[in-house]
Amino acid sequence: MRFAVATLLFAATALAAPAPAFAQTPPPPATAGARTPEAQALKALFAASDEDFLKRNPLFALFRGDMRYADQFGDFITNEYLAAEKAAAERDLAALRAIDRARLSPRDQVSYDVFEWTLTDRLAGRFSGCNRGNR
Fold first, then answer.
1. Which among 4, 33, 37, 72 could bridge 58 via Cys, Cβ 3.0 to 4.6 Å?
2. Residue 134 has what pLDDT?
């Protein structure tokens, strides 16, 4: 009986106690830069680049469960394919650099930097003719 009373008292005390400070903190507001033209341009660039990549690499679409290109195998070894990949990376890099990075939110700046690094790495290593395939 004393155990039951002690349990009830503990439960009542726990329920009446104020919540920890972290639970009372409201969630942070959406970042102010999330709706800037630069952020919208960055998001549109990511979407367009990804869609173009899936068209050139239909197996990657299939791996994602995207069946739109399931009837295609893709071309991963010809010079035309490599030239198309290089042109796409150069086009995406030019479009990325047209976006003012300083006007992006910190989160979008990280996305910008990662995308830029990926594209420059792709151009420097994968598509330079003398070391193609020797990454």
1. 72
2. 43
The answer to whether residue 4 is domain-embedded is: no
The predicted model scores a pTM of: 0.67
Residues 102-128 pLDDT 10s: 999 999 999 999 999 999 999 997 554
Residue 78 covered by a domain: yes
Long-range pairs, 28-34, Cβ under 8 A, ≥24: 31/105, 31/106, 31/107, 32/105, 33/103, 33/104, 33/105, 33/108, 34/105, 34/108
Domain that holds residue 104: 33-128
For residue 63, report the phi and psi dihedrals to the nearest 5 degrees: -60, -30
Q: How many domains does the chain have?
A: 1
